[in-house]
Every structure is written in C-alpha cells, then in structure tokens.
Specification:
The chain has 595 residues and is α+β, with helices and mostly antiparallel strands. It contains 19 helices and 24 strands.
Length: 595
C-alpha cells in the first residue's frame, strides 16, 4: 500500500518518540542497560511495522518499577506519549472490578459479615431479582459465576456498541435483566460476557452504597495513590496527557471519532483508563497479594487466592486461539479463567493475564505473584488490531527478560511473528461485502420496532432506500434484499470504528399483517448474537421499570474451608520456592502463615 507524505511524516514521528520516549521519573534497576537498549529497539521496530502511534509500558519487579511512554498520544498534534499519559485498558478493567469486590468482601468480613464470592445476586439485589427467565439461574447465580463467565447468560455486546444504557440508566438495565436469553450450560461452560461485569459493578454499588467509580476511587485507587484514572465516558480529549484513539483510513493514520468510546452501564467490563506510571502501582498491588506499597492489606489473602484460582476450564478452541504450542520455542498454555484473569502455564511457571480491546485502545496485563513480577502494555491504535499478533509477542519478550530467560522473540521476529514457527495469516483492511441497496417499496418495512431490554430500532426511508437506526450509534442502509431479509451496511464512520467487532449483520422481517411487517430480527454472525424487536413495543430508559431493591440483604454463611485443588497446589509451590513472604489469613484463617 502506497503511503502519502503525511503518513510518512507521522511514521517518522512515531519512530522518533519510540526511540527517545520519556522515562518515568523514578528509574530503578529493573533491567540492565543492555536489556533496556534491546527493549527500546524491539519496541521501536514493532511500532514501526504495526504502525502503532503510541505505546505505554509498565513494569514491576518486586519493589522496583519502570514506566515509559513511546510514540505519540496524538498524531495530529504530535503530542508525545509519556509515562503519565492516560491510556484506556479495555477488558483489563475486569480485574479492577473483581478487586473492588474483593476489597468489599474483606471489609464486610472484618465487620463480622458473611459476604463472599459465593454470595448470590439475589442476596445482594433482593428476592425479586431475576437474571433471566430461568428460575435456577436467577436464584443461584453468584458473584463468582458472573465474574468467571460461567453464568449461562447470553452476551449482548452489540447492545454495548449501540450505547443504549448510559451510566445514569444502570438501575433501569438491572430491572430488565430477566429478559436476557440463556446460552450454554450454567456453571459448566466458559462464555465471555461483558454485560455480567456490568452487573458486577451494580452489585458493588448495592454492597458499598455508592456509585461504581466513586467506590473504585475510595476503596482501591486512592489507597494505591492512583491519581490518573478515569472512565472512558468521561475522558477529556483536550488534555495533552490524554491519549487519543487512532485508526487507519485509506492508508493514513488518523484519529478515531471519540463519540464511539462510551460504554455506559458496561463500564465495569472495560472502560477504565489510566497512565503507565499508575499501572505500576496496580502491578505491585497484585504481585503482593492485595497489599499497597505502604503495606496496607486491602484484600484478605484467602479472598485474593480465590480471586485468582481456577473457576472454569476453557474449551479447546479457546485454548487453541490463546495459547502457543509445541511449534514455538516456549509453549504457553492458557487453560482456565478465574475472576477477571486468564490462568496460564509458561516456562514452568503459573501466571495470570488479561488482554483488553476497546475499538482503538488495546492492552495486555500479566502478573505473577509467585515471582513478584508484572507487566502492562497499552496502545492507542491502530484499529483494528490483532492482540495476539501486535501486543502479545511484546509481552512474551518482556516476560522472558523478567524471568531471566533468553527471549525467543527479538527485534527481527517481533514483526514476522507468528512466522517462522507458523504461517502468518494475511491481514487485509476490513470492508463491507454488500451488493446493491434496496430500491423497492418501503412502506411495509418502515416504522419503530422495540424491545424492553434491547431498545428501539427505527426503519425509515432515506435516498429512496431503507435506513436502519438502533440506539445512538448503529446506523446503516439495508442491502441485498431477498424476500423479507436484508443485509446491513453500516455508515462509513460507524464501520471504521465498530465494524471489525460488529461484523456482518442480517435483518429479517416477519409477521406480515395489515400491509406491514410487525417483527424484526437482527442476527450478528461474528458476535453470535440475535436481537428480536416488535412493532409497537416502546422503550424508554428514563422511566425505568420497577427495579429490585438495591440494598444488600443479610448474607447466609458460606463454607470457606474448602479450597480448590489449584489453590492448594499454588500455595504449596510458593512454600517450596518463596519462603520470604508472609500470608495474612485474617480473621477467617488460622492466624498468620509464613510461606
């Protein structure tokens, strides 16, 4: 692809900042000078070949930290990316949400309460709470279930993209959850679900009696002296220390439309943004089992252990897509999911990781409490990015150095990856494969179609064709008419940001009577989600349906003595290998145990 002069200038600018980026104000001996030189060179090469505008690196090794910014926060202004520039971390937010609940559990237990990971949502929200129409799921689903993606509830990521529920309408969403479909086996299948983390945020509010982010700041961020954090919905893009999202348009690196970066009620699943410098404090906290640098234990050690212990096994295809197998010099097996963390075996060690993506922001966080090492990487484009190609290789490279191993990736293979070990699939710019827009009679299709949970769809006439509108963001033209079915071509500005995640969509009209269709079904193949709408059904989030009580009821006691085999093995290994850390079991344990 041929680049214009503006793009060439931007690439050189990115390279310059990648090589001469600003160091964190406290530069500790995490790496040797030769290691630092190799890291800078490798990152510069990766940013060049992947056209990454800005990258943040955060490293923690025992009590030492390193944070650095590479490239630019804004290609238009040439604003440098620094260790203090705020970057959004996408789904790595989930671990913060789990940790917030862990703090609330710890505080409740100190006060004699019985709140735990196995507390049911009905105990938190009230006896009238229903998660789906399934009475078993509604009555038995626990915090542990929704945080480990094993609730058996269908995902609604397209609803997130449509921006139906703003942050102010969280309670309205809560009252409509009983309309959710089921998907898979309750507690028997891993099925990634962002909405359930939105529910987890609502559970934290019910327990802590304050809004989600206010609780996050009070219970977690302020004790860690994390001062840069903000939710994506509240990002101030006019500030130099705010990293802006980027995408590729016709071969040029440009800014993304910031209007799309709003998660509303889904915020606990992926809306947190903070600086690389503040991420080092988060890594320290994780690597010290929930203890702040000032030695304030926010999370009981047993509660922390359960937070990172295996809750659900990953299916074979998920393991295959996330792991590295025998063809690679250092195999990596990602085998289970805990509470906001994937569990991995790598180089004979157990660690925990999570990737994040939010259209143009991408991240990966890796923590290893056993060796007390951790790393976080954040980038502000380009959209679309393939995490497993563009960011995970760098994480492997840095992880090897932290472990004292010779990296199997280097400045040459960081860009060819997964070659030479596997053939690299060719990446082509995404495009919408549609043919001709509908030019026939429109009256029978036009109108408003609603659903009490999924919102309202409007089908109108535009440019002598049918135009589709759902929520605040999903807009497009209907193409490829076959009887009563169409394909949706998103508007260009929508597709540039949301398209790679939204995927192809089919719209089918049905229930024809009185000269019009009365039902509309939207099927999204990439997301494997289906949404049904009916003519005449209204949707108004400003007047929420009757909602369950938001006050936590008394919790029944749970048996905390039984640990999974994984926890036992994890701490047994730690006993053998690391005898210098103290594990405080608190009131529910047997005093303090030296491991």
């Amino acid at each position: 692809m041929r680049m214009d002069y503006n793009t060439i200038a931007i690439v050189w600018l990115i390279l310059a900042f990648a090589i001469f980026g600003k160091w964190h104000s406290v530069r500790c001996d995490v790496f040797s000078s030769s290691e630092l030189s190799s890291i800078d060179e490798t990152i510069a090469e990766l940013m060049s070949c992947r056209r990454i505008p800005g990258l943040g690196m955060s490293i923690a090794k025992r009590d030492q930290f390193l944070a650095k910014g590479y490239g630019v926060a804004d290609v238009t202004e040439g604003t440098p990316m620094t260790e203090d520039t705020v970057m959004c971390i996408g789904s790595a937010t989930k671990a913060f949400t789990s940790a917030l609940l862990a703090v609330l559990i710890t505080e409740d237990n100190k006060n004699g309460g019985t709140l735990s990971w196995t507390t049911t949502l009905r105990e938190i929200f009230g006896e009238d709470f229903r998660l789906t129409s399934d009475p078993i799921i509604s009555s038995q689903t626990t915090l542990e279930d929704i945080l480990s993606h094993r609730s058996g509830v269908g995902s609604t990521d397209a609803m997130l993209m449509a921006q139906l529920y703003s942050d102010q309408h969280r309670k309205s969403l809560l009252s409509r959850l009983h309309l959710l479909p089921t998907k898979g086996e309750f507690r028997g299948q891993f099925s990634y679900n962002n909405l359930m983390y939105g529910v987890a945020g609502l559970a934290a509010e019910a327990i802590g009696k304050k809004p989600y982010f206010e609780l996050m700041k009070e219970k977690l961020l302020q004790p860690l002296n994390i001062t840069s954090a903000v939710l994506a919905d509240n990002m101030d893009y006019s500030q130099n220390l705010t990293s802006k999202p980027h995408q590729m348009v016709n071969g040029s690196v440009v800014l993304s439309d910031s209007r799309f970066f709003r998660l509303g009620s889904f915020s606990p699943a992926g809306a947190l943004c903070l600086s690389p410098a503040d991420l080092t404090k988060w890594l320290y906290f994780l690597n010290h089992y929930g203890t702040t640098p000032s030695q304030n234990r926010l999370i009981n050690s047993l509660v922390f252990a359960k937070m990172i212990s295996s809750k659900v096994s990953l299916d074979f295809m998920t393991q295959l897509s996330l792991g590295l197998f025998s063809k690679f010099p250092a195999p990596s097996y990602i085998s289970w999911y805990a509470l906001g963390w994937f569990g991995r075996f790598y180089r004979g060690d157990i660690d925990f990781l999570h990737g994040g993506s939010m259209f143009s922001y991408y991240s990966v966080v890796v923590m290893d409490p056993t060796t007390q090492t951790g790393l976080a990487l954040t980038v502000n484009g380009l959209n679309p990015t393939i995490l497993s190609y563009d960011l995970y290789p760098l994480a492997y490279f840095l992880k090897d150095i932290l472990l004292g191993q010779t990296p199997w990736l280097n400045v040459t293979t960081i860009c060819s990856y997964p070659a030479p070990w596997l053939l690299s699939s060719q990446r082509t710019p995404p495009k919408q494969n549609v043919q001709e827009k509908y030019m026939g009679s429109t009256k029978e299709f036009m109108g408003k179609f609603g659903h009490a949970l999924y919102g309202q769809v409007k089908v109108t006439e535009k440019d002598q064709s049918l135009y589709f509108q759902w929520g605040n963001m999903i807009n497009g033209t209907l193409y490829d008419h076959k009887k009563s079915q169409f394909r949706l071509r998103l508007d260009d500005n929508v597709y540039l940001v949301l398209g790679p995640e939204f995927g192809s969509a089919n719209i089918a009209f049905s229930n024809y009577s009185s000269g019009q269709y009365n039902n509309l079904k939207l099927t999204l193949y990439r997301l494997t989600e289906t949404y049904d709408f009916e003519r005449g059904v209204s949707f108004e989030v400003s007047s929420p349906l009757s909602s369950p009580s938001s006050s936590a009821v008394s919790m029944r006691p749970h048996n905390t003595a039984s640990l999974s085999l994984y926890i036992i093995v994890f701490y047994f290994i730690k006993v053998l290998l690391h005898t210098d850390s103290v594990l405080d079991l608190g009131k529910n344990g047997q005093g303090s145990t030296v491991l």
